[in-house]
Structures are given as C-alpha cells and as structure tokens.
Automatic annotation (TrEMBL):
It comes from the Bacteria. It holds the Pfam family Acetyltransf_1. Residues 18-168 form the N-acetyltransferase domain. InterPro entries: Acetyltransferase_Butenolide (IPR053144), Acyl_CoA_acyltransferase (IPR016181), GNAT_dom (IPR000182). The lineage of its organism: Bacteria, Bacillati, Actinomycetota, Actinomycetes, Kitasatosporales. This is Acetyltransferase.
Length: 168
C-alpha cells in the first residue's frame, strides 16, 4: 500500500509529496540514524538509543514502512514505523526532527492503522517515550497504563497506550 500526501514545509513554501512504502534492507542505516539522531532522545534519554540499530533483519521480520519525501536525490526518509503483529504492537515510530509538525506522524499512524486492519487486528499496544505522550493522545491512542522502569535499559516509567482499530 502506498499513500501519498502533498505536504508543505514550515521552512519552505515548496510543496513536497510524501510517499509511504515498505522499508527495505537498504533503508536500515538511514532508519538507525533517524533513531539515534532523534532530538526526543537527548540528555537523560540518550542512553535509550545509544547503540540502537534498525538492521536489515529487523526490517525483514516486521512490517516496517517509511515516509519518503520527493527530492533531487530520489527520496529522503522523513519518518518510519514498525508494526509487530504478535503480540500486536506499534514498536517504533519516528519522524525526523526537521520534518516534525508537518503531519507526517499523523500520516504514518493512519497508514499503520490501515495495515493493522488489513492484518485482522482490532487493537494494538504502544509503549510511548515520555516526550511523545501528547502526540499519541492527539492521534487517538487511549492511555491504558504504565510500563514500569527496567534499569539499566530504560530507567524511567513510560505511558502505555492502545490504538483501537475500527473495522471499515
């Protein structure tokens, strides 16, 4: 499934087309850089993504999709998500810092919900990073609890959400 959406940049009046496509092995390094370079994981959160890797094996094992912006280099990864079917969970969702605030996260969530529906899911869990909590509220996720700290990997509690996937 490919979704496209004309997007306008906050910093440029030029309209840009966004395409969502299945991630492929050659995207692994770009996705890893996106995770490790996320401004949401600076300061006390940096340890959570230090050394994190989105490898070709991960991309093959999960339903990973990328949002690509058209540019002179044939497309730039602006964000991505990964859907795990068993147990149903949105495992990763990242939007490049410079692309935030343009609706790309909302577009990725809508695509994820469509993929979940096609897979027969009626709900799925998200364990959110604290700075992303408001985003999940805005895109319709319902807070269901708390994932408690698991030091040293994750030394802080995180909000748990659920997306309810309505049938069409």
């Amino acid at each position: 499934m490919r979704n496209t959406l004309p997007m306008s940049s906050r910093t440029s009046p030029i309209s840009q087309s966004i395409t969502i496509r299945r991630a492929v092995a050659k995207d692994a390094k770009r996705l890893t850089r996106l995770v490790r370079g996320s401004g949401a994981y600076e300061g006390k959160y940096a340890a959570a993504v230090e050394g994190y890797r989105v490898g070709p094996d991960y991309i093959e094992a999960h339903r990973a999709f990328v949002a690509v912006g058209a540019d002179e280099h044939g497309g730039r990864v602006l964000g991505f998500y990964s859907l795990v079917l068993a147990p149903p969970e949105l495992d990763l969702l990242f939007v490049a810092d410079e692309a935030q605030g343009r609706g790309i996260g909302r577009l990725l969530v809508a695509h994820m919900q469509s993929e979940a529906r096609a897979a027969g899911l009626d709900r799925l869990k998200v364990v959110s990073h604290l700075p992303a909590e408001d985003f999940y509220h805005r895109v319709g996720a319902v807070r269901t609890g708390t994932a408690f700290a698991n030091p040293p990997a994750v030394p802080w509690d995180r909000p748990e959400f659920e997306f309810r996937i309505p049938s069409e």
